[in-house]
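Appendix B. Chain record.
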Amino acid sequence: MSPPAAIDIAQLCKEHGLRLTKPRKIIMEVLLNSSDHPDAVELHRRVSRIDPGIAIATVYRTLSMLQEKGALERHTFSDGRARYETAAHEHHDHLINVDTGEVIEFRSDEIERLQEEIARSRGFEIVSHKLEIYVRPLKDQAKGSRR
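Structure tokens predicted for this chain:
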């Protein structure tokens, strides 16, 4: 694992008042280095490659505790599985491919501006929000590569 991830993990645990145990460190390293949104079972599969002694119960407890402390975000997309990512990411939204289950992160300043405008025009300020857009490849692009 890369040293910067370990430094981030130590800082994250310190900020949230958590002891940095070896299993937590491994679980957080795997999450920080994930380009997707793994569920607990997939996360356990990945951490088991590093340390086969980490039980799935430890993964579930760690995910729950890290989410409770605000260090993780939990997403439940249409497949019903709880998936996780570190809360250290800049705000972004998600496209979910209904054919493959792939989750694609994106950010749009225009969407953010429109959401703010809509809330303000109705007398509200946005406290929090998430945007999930369920998609499938266009028929003419399904056979070719995605841009």
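Further analysis of this model is presented in Appendix C.
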